[in-house]
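Hi both,

Apologies for the delay on this - the queue was longer than expected. I finally got the magnesium ion-bound model through. Below you'll find the protein sequence and the ligand SMILES exactly as submitted, and right after that the structure tokens for the full complex including the ligand.
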Amino acid sequence: MDVPDRRGRTGLDQAGRGLTGNPRVRVRDVRLLTSNWFVTRATTIDFQHSDGHWSVEERETYDRGDGACILLYNTRKRTVVLSRQFRFPAYVNGHPNGNLIEVAAGLLDDDDPESAIRREAEEETGHTLGPVEHVFDAFMSPGSVTERLHFFAAPYDEGTRSGAGGGLGEEGEDIEVLELGIDDALARIGSDIVDAKTIMLLQWAALSGPFARA
Ligand SMILES: Nc1nc2c(ncn2[C@@H]2O[C@H](COP(=O)(O)OP(=O)(O)O[C@H]3O[C@H](CO)[C@@H](O)[C@H](O)[C@@H]3O)[C@@H](O)[C@H]2O)c(=O)[nH]1
Ligand SMILES: [Mg+2]
């Protein structure tokens, strides 16, 4: 398909047709359902169950590309930089106001994960980072969403500050930058910190990352 989605991506309408890595899965048919801001597909597969029999299954997938996220931390002050922004999908599903506290994050678009997260950290938090540490990669919602998220962490201080942050107005972003104590942030998990990538990075930082090492 040559018509790009709104992020400029093309050729995603038949994704999955050539997959051969799993001998228990044969892709029969891929149908494009929607292509607007992102792409959704319905894929029909022959699937071999563990007892050996085959069945035909259909799976819908939501393809928004991959993303990256980063925890900015300061071990001397024992603080982290987070952001707050409105997330409609959370609002429509029971979050009281949709204003989610998150680590800085963004879609890769055409960049490699490290370049993308440097760009997003600068746009969203106003920090131009030195060395960044790759933590792990994870599928965030593998039953329906294709996205693989690349997790990073980096130190920040007054020397890395280069701007105000806040996101790109022309992309409709309106991001409040927050600095929280790590103990306060950890205590707020499950009450007003309910974003998965943020919880994962805060717990990593406390268990085996910078606040465990410090
Ligand atoms: N008009 C319009 N704009 C959209 C739509 N969906 C997203 N946008 C705009 O596109 C921007 C994308 O900003 P990024 O910073 O690149 O992505 P992100 O939404 O912050 O994504 C990060 O968080 C997601 C949620 O946790 C992650 O899924 C993703 O991997 C990444 O980490 C959003 O802020 C929003 O302004 C849409 O359907 N319509
Ligand atoms: Mg973002």
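Main takeaway for now: The longest strand covers residues 25-35.

I'll put the files on the shared drive as well.

H.
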